[in-house]
Specification:
Helix content: 40-55%
Strand content: 5-15%
Oligomer: single chain
Organism: Actinoplanes couchii
Strand order of the largest sheet: 3-2-1-4-5
Distance between the termini: 61 Å
Protein name: Transposase IS110-like N-terminal domain-containing protein
Length: 236
């Protein structure tokens, strides 16, 4: 049975070892597969390293089987043909086609539409979590380099610095010099803007007292330069 393996810019169709270039146009792909026996009655299954992308969606729309192969699995199969470790898109396409030709019976069918949509949303949630963590780490690094008062005030109620309260404090007092003159009423107003509704005066008093205490500081010009560097979520 003919099978196809697609790798980046190369593909390999294996009824008898014919190699073709992987198309970017889905119509061209159907024409190339048709040259080696593909038809609507018997579509050629395709092995590919990624389960996502426009080419995968176009091939799946034709009703053929799409079989994503894990990169580590491809690497293990590649060692059957070469031990040099040399990378080749054409050779990888051949490996993908041979994986499908010999082990099609153990390959899982592609997920349904609902499962694919859930996977997209789950990945978006994971990416947002990673971005939030990176922002918090960058904020911690910037505060530690010239603004320990903000670091202490932001971490007073939570170890997570990527919070609306922290961003509100940074907007009100972007430098240690501004923090010394920051009024408690402005902190309370910022808390209301970010959605705080209870114990506002008590919560506002805590960072106000922390920022008024003596802390290690850089020279004023250095502090301005640190703000101009626009670290992380520092206001522009």
């Amino acid at each position: 049975m003919p099978v196809a393996g697609i790798k980046d810019g190369s593909s390999d169709v294996r009824p008898s070892g014919l190699s073709i270039r992987a198309p970017r146009d889905p119509d061209q792909g159907e024409e190339l597969l048709a040259d080696v026996g593909d038809s609507s009655d018997c579509p050629i299954p395709v092995a590919i390293e990624t389960p996502r992308g426009l080419l995968v969606a176009a091939l799946r729309a034709t009703g053929r089987g799409i079989y994503p192969i894990n990169l580590m699995a491809v690497a293990r199969y590649r060692e059957r043909y070469s031990v040099s470790g040399k990378k080749s898109d054409h050779a990888d396409a051949v490996v993908l086609a041979n994986i499908l030709r010999t082990d099609l019976h153990v390959r899982r069918p592609p997920p349904a539409k609902l499962a694919r949509s859930i996977a997209v949303l789950a990945r978006a949630c994971q990416d947002a979590t990673w971005r939030r963590t990176r922002a918090g780490n960058e904020l911690r690094r910037c505060c530690a380099s010239f603004y320990p008062a903000m670091l202490e005030a932001a971490a007073n109620r939570s170890e997570n610095l990527a919070t609306p309260l922290t961003c509100a404090l940074i907007e009100l007092a972007p430098t240690p010099a501004a923090a010394l003159t920051l009024a408690k009423a402005r902190i309370a107003a910022a808390l209301r803007r970010v959605g705080r509704s209870r114990n506002i005066e008590q919560v506002a008093a805590e960072p106000h007292a922390i920022m008024r205490r003596p802390h290690l500081r850089q020279d004023p010009l250095v502090e301005q330069a640190m703000v101009s560097r626009r670290c992380g979520c520092w206001p522009r």
